[in-house]
Amino acid sequence: MADSTRGRNQDRARVAAGQDHEVRYEAEKQDVSRAEVKQAVHEVGNSRKKVEDRLDRAD
């Protein structure tokens, strides 16, 4: 079986709002509340780049 990081890379490109550890990580990284991370995911989807861009604009 071939080794592949495609799945891992795709997973890192997303923020799973239902996973507390992912929400906590993103909140600490962006210095915002967990609720703000969840709201950003709700507004722009779960793309990590879009969520981070949304949180940057909220400052």
Report on this model:
It is a single chain. This protein is mainly alpha-helical and 59 residues long. It has helices at 6-12, 20-30, 34-44, 48-58. The longest helix has 11 residues, at 20-30. The model has no long low-confidence stretch (mean pLDDT 88).
Concise summary:
The chain is 68% helix and 0% strand. The chain is mainly alpha-helical and 59 residues long. The model has no long low-confidence stretch (mean pLDDT 88).
**Overall mean pLDDT:** 88
Q: Helix coverage percent of residues?
A: 55-70%
Termini Cα gap: 46 Å
- So how many helices? 4
Low-confidence stretches: none
Quick one: how many beta strands?
0
Summarize the helix and strand pattern as letters.
HHHH
What is the beta-strand fraction? under 5%
Structure class: mainly alpha
The shape is: globular
- Radius of gyration computed on alpha carbons: 12 Å
| Biggest pleated sheet | none
Which descriptors would you attach to this protein?
mainly alpha
Chart the SSEs and their pairings.
Elements: H1 6-12, H2 20-30, H3 34-44, H4 48-58
Helix pairs in contact: 2-3, 3-4
